Amino acid sequence: MTPVPGRSSADTTSTGTPSPGGAPAPLLRRILLQGRYETVTMLRNGEQLILAVVLPLLAMVGLTVTPLLDGLGASRINVAVPGILALCAMSTAFTGQGISTGFDRRYGVLRFLSTTPLGRTGLIAGKVLAVLAVLLLQVLVVTAVALPLGWQPDPLGWLPGLALLVLGAASFTALGLLVAGTVRPEATLAITNLLWILLGALGGIVIPSERLPALAQAAVHFLPSGALGQALRDAFLHGSINAGSVIVLLLWTALAGGAASRWFKWN
Asked: How confident is the model over 135-181, as pLDDT tens digits?
């Protein structure tokens, strides 16, 4: 049997049950085990794979064969890929984690795990590890498809770009946990999917603000979607760091994280 997350193999009998007097595994091991479990669960979910990989790839191909991104000072693929990477972060960290956490809460999984040696801190840390693991796979897949299509990122943009992806994932994870922990699971499903569509189309994440309606152009820079999309385009197109976008992402992470800590309901 698979060992219970949070306990080392030495603390279990041959049947997989805890041995008498067995001590919990170290916190780091508990978090790593939970992170592995969360990652495997996400990768086995066909709906989440479509949302996290298939749809972003289709959007990338669509943007390279249409003139929507023409006239922005770079080739279509070079403008499209940073936005697609940002969309991947939002898909996994916000929509994917929001939905899975919401239904875990509904079925009592969160309440159960929060009382085990894993604890609430370990549970959240495991979810963050899963988001980062899946995001790494998304970056590898998108890069493998984009390079043959002619993507030429600025070499100086890789380090800030990856750091911005992590920051963006933190911001969207905090937002996903806030939604999942405060509304019903059915509402979480509707809200996260609706926001994925709206932010993906009009939030400045895939399509630069210059191509959006006039009313949306000023507002998108203050959204986590617009901030992450613009920051990644600046990084991979010019090798630069957009300080304003970084501040916006930090503020969203702090505010959403604080609100989730304050109002998150475990049952």
From this structure: 999 999 999 999 999 999 999 999 999 999 999 999 999 999 999 99
Residue spans of the domains in the chain: they are: 23-263
Q: Which helix (H) or strand (E) holds 246?
A: helix 243-263
Residue 5 CB coordination number (10 Å): 23
Q: Is 216 in a helix, a strand, or coil? A: helix
Does the predicted model carry a pTM greater than 0.70?
yes
Q: Hey, how many other C-beta atoms are within 10 angstroms of the C-beta on 101?
A: 25
Which residues have C-beta within 8 Å of that of residue 57, sequence separation ≥ 6?
84, 141, 142, 145
Query: CB within 8 A of 45, min separation 6: which ones?
Result: 100
In degrees and rounded to multiples of 5, residue 165 shows phi and psi of: -60, -40
Distances (CA, A) of 261 to 180, 181, 244, 251: 12, 9, 26, 15
Q: H or E stretch including 32? A: helix 27-44
